[in-house]
Amino acid sequence: MKKLSFFQQDLLTEIGSIGTGHAATALAEMMGRKITITVPTVKLVGFDRVADYVGGPDNVLACVYLEVMGDLPGTVLVMFDEVSAGKLLADLVGERPQDFLSLSPLQKSALQEIGNILAGSYLSALGDFCQQKLLVSVPNLAVDMADAVFSVPMIKLGDKTDYALLIQAMFFEDQAHTGFIVFIPDPTSARKLMDIFQVDAHG
Amino acid sequence: MDNRQIGMAQLAVCRGPGIIRSSGLGSCIGIALYDPFNKIGGMAHAMLPKHRAGREGNRAKYVDTAVEAMLNEMEAMGCSKVNIVAKLAGGAQMFRDADKENIMMIGQKNIKAAEDCLQELGIPIIARDTGGHCGRTLEFNCQDGGLYIKTINNEAKI
C-alpha cells in the first residue's frame, strides 16, 4: 500500500473519530473541563516524515507509548508538550514540574496513567465499533525529541514496509493546544479494517 | 557548500566542507564514515540490523546495506577503503521500563550490527556515543570528520 484511496481515507478518518471522541470525553471527565478534538488526519507517510505530524522532528514531547495487541495490532502514542504536561500535572497531582526533562516518579506515573486512560478509551471505542478484540500493553513514558520516540514504532514496521499509516488527532482546551493522540496500525491491521468494512484495499 | 539533511532510513555522502545532519535518532543508529585524505564523509540513519536476502527496497534502512551503499558511493568519488574510519552514535533504548526481550532492545542490536559489519570490512570505529536512553541529533562535518551530537540536555563533539 503506497497511497490511500478516497474510501480508505474516509473509513480510517471515521474510525479514528470514534476513538478520539471517546478519548476526549475521558480527558474532559478527568480534568473536569471542556476538551475539543480535531477530526483525525489520516496519512500514509515515509518514516522520515512522521514527526512532521506532531510539530517536527526536534519537538520535545512527553510521549506515552502503548503497544496494541489482539485483533488489530499496532501502536498508540499519546503526546503532550511542556506547557500542557505541566498543566495536566498541576491539576491532577497538584505539582507543576520544575524541569520537564527530569520528571519525578510521581509525575511520570501520572502522565503514563493519563496516556493509559486516553489510549484505553480510544481503543475500546474502536474495538467495539469494529467488533474486534483489542488488548493494550502497560504504558511507557519518554520525554524526548519526537523523531527519537517515533523510531520505536517505525522500527517495528520497518521490516515489513517503508510507510507508516498515521491516524493523528489533536486535543484543544480553550483553543490552546493540549496534545496529540496517534494510532499507527500495523499493515495487517490496516488491511483487516478495510476488509471488515468492505472497502477495497486496492481501490 | 553541500548541506544535507537525512531522515530515518536515509543516507548521504558528500565532500567537505559539506555537512550532513540528522534529527532525532532514537533506537536507530547513525553511522558516519570519513576519509581524512579526500575529505569525503558519509552518514546513514539506519533502523534495523540486517537486510534479509531476497528483499528489495530501501538500502539505507538496514545497517549492513547502508554501510555497503555508502562505501560504494565514497569509493566511486575516489576514496580508498583503507583510509576510511567510522564513528557511531545512537542505538538508545527510548522507553526504560519496557520489557527487555522485545522490540525495545533494538538499539543494542543495531549497535552490535554496526560493530560487526564495520569489523568485517576492516573499518576502525574511532569514536562513539551509543546506548543510553536519550534521542540524539547529529551533525557530521565532512571537512574535519567531527561529529556533533545534541541531546535534549547535553551537547558533545566526538
The percent of residues in helical segments of chain A reads 40-55%
User: Which percent band covers the strand fraction of chain A?
Assistant: 25-35%
Major β-sheet annotation of chain B: 5 strands, mixed
Order of helices and strands of chain A: HEEEEHHEEHEEH
- Give me the count of strands of chain B: 10
Outline:
Chain A is α+β, with helices and mostly antiparallel strands.
Structure description:
With 203 residues, chain A is α+β, with helices and mostly antiparallel strands. In chain A, strands 1, 2, 3, 4, 5, 6, 7 and 8 form an eight-stranded antiparallel β-sheet that branches. In chain A, strand 7 and strand 8 form a beta hairpin. In chain A, helix 1 crosses helix 3. Chain A is globular. The N and C termini of chain A lie close together (10 Å). The model of chain A has no long low-confidence stretch (mean pLDDT 89). Chain B has 158 residues and is α+β, with helices and mostly antiparallel strands. Chain B has one domain: 60s Ribosomal Protein L30, Chain: A, CATH 3.30.1330.200. Chain B is 19% helix and 37% strand. In chain B, the strands form two sheets. Chain B has a five-stranded mixed β-sheet, with no helix packed on it. In chain B, strands 2-5-4-6-7 form a five-stranded mixed β-sheet, with helices on one face. Chains A and B meet through strand 6 and helix 4 of A and strand 3 of B.
